Amino acid sequence: MQTAWVLDYLDDIESDLSAVHRVDDMWQMDGPRFFRLAHRLPAYRGVMRMRAEAEAERASDGRPARTSDGAGREVVPDSELRRSAEFAGMVDWGTA
Fold it and tell me: In this structure, which of 6, 12, 38, 43 has its CB flanked by the most CB atoms within 10 Å?
């Protein structure tokens, strides 16, 4: 099981762990338990499931998936923004 993906979703994982598993402070969890629970979050209704479904949709048609932030606002993946001519030169994306 790869684990680096969690770095992109820490806020979402923290929220889902709180809602689904009633974890008050994920930062106090030991690593093995954290990764066991985080890996299973897409199985439950929550942000990580929404993200997993969006990724599956994106993978099926080859376009970056757009999701909602829960307040009805569209979330555009940074990979799409990086390729956008509209944002060229406006954002310093670093060297990641």
Answer: 38
